[in-house]
Design brief:
Blueprint (H helix, E strand, L loop, with lengths): L2 H12 L11 H9 L8 E6 L4 H14 L4 E4 L11 E3 L2 E2 L2 H15 L9 H10 L15 H15 L4 E5 L16 E4 L7 H4 L3 H9 L7 E4 L4 H14 L2 E4 L16 H19 L7 H10 L7 E5 L2 E5 L5 H12 L7 E4 L7 H8 L6 E4 L10 H10 L4 E4 L3 H11 L4 E4 L2 H10 L15
Parallel strand pairs: 1-5, 1-6, 2-5, 6-7, 7-8, 10-14, 11-12, 11-14, 12-13
Antiparallel strand pairs: 2-3, 3-4, 9-10
Helix pairs in contact: 1-4, 3-10, 4-5, 4-6, 8-9, 12-13
Length: about 450
Amino acid sequence: MDQATYDALTRRLFTQNLFSIKLGLDRVQAAVRAAGTPQNAFDVVIVAGTNGKGTTSALMASLLQRAGLRVGLFTSPHLVDVRERFRVDGVPLPRAQVAQTLKAVLAWFAGADPADPSIEEGRRLATQWGWEGEPAIDEEALTFFELTTLAGLCLFAQSGVDVVILEVGVGGRLDAVNAVEPLVSAITRVDMDHQKYLGDTLGEIAFEKAGVMRSGRPVVVAPQHPEAMASIRQHAQRLRAGLIEVKGAQAPSGASSWLSGPFADNAAVAARTARAVLEARSMAPLAPEVEAQVLAAARWPGRRDAWLGKDGPWLFDVAHNPAGMKSLGAFLKAQTSRPPVGVMGVMADKDVDGMIETLVGWPQTQWVLTRAQTPRAMAADELARRFDAAGLKVAVVAEAVPEAVKAARALTSQQVLVCGSVYLLGEVLTALDIDETFFALRQQGR
């Protein structure tokens, strides 16, 4: 498939209520049935939580792959290309395969315009694959995240995987990925985020996350605030789920420093969940030293991610809420070599002031502020005003990300930090012209 056709198809996908959140399972469950219940072809692990879901999912995928399984990994959001959401054995699926499935999913479940030239081919594919019912219209149409979830299930079934790890989008109980039945569930650290949809207390938010557990099935839970853990325990007791609490995690032996702090909890949850999956499949667990080797070598693109670019070194991290920023700050302060310049842009619907509060005392002495090209992004000059109020030094305010990248590199030849938003990092990677190998689950010393 040529790039222009692929780009047109993904643009159509991105117009489908990209930033809409319609919590509820009825539409997705109906769509999954119509598409032939593709999830019946593999075992499923669902990962919920506030921070660390993607990292935990990626580490778990590496562990299960090492155990000899073919592993599908569904994560969100993507940085540059929607194919990053659909990985098999650590590598994004081929463009042609993703495009073909997206054509069918859009044609059958997006309430698409019949005048769209790709509709006819998409409906032909859906009919050929035995999908049932009639194309969705109006309120039956799926949202962007629901469409990508369904596409992922179909793609993984086509790819002959043994296990699929599904990262929750928002919450858990009513999130699209929860429309399928997991063999094992996991819950990473629960913090304040998405209060509009999940509740105003840690207990309420944890209740929503706990919705991914199932009666009689294992659920692995990271160390939590007491209020969050009380809610999770109550839910597990009510369901008689097999609650497994990870306590006092430490970075794996031999692991690089990126797996310190809360990331050590992520690694511990990934390892314990992988063991639960292998046990449920009657497979031998990995030896502890093998687990440690896998975790020591693992990388998750865009998370505490050091990268040597053509113009110099960079450190990428998609921390985008106060808890994530606090964790990143602790990581930075523990490094012997610290980036003196930071590039930051944020979404206006996040706790921006809470994020800025965590920056006081960071090693970055100069900041370059910008905004990603999305309606959700906060204007760079408004972010600068808030930085000034907090006493943080703003060196450059750049309306466009490519301008910010150039400005940051002009300030230093040392490592530059990029943080604050997944969308910002995606545009930085595009500006840096980073090649496709960046998006595979990489190993240390890549």
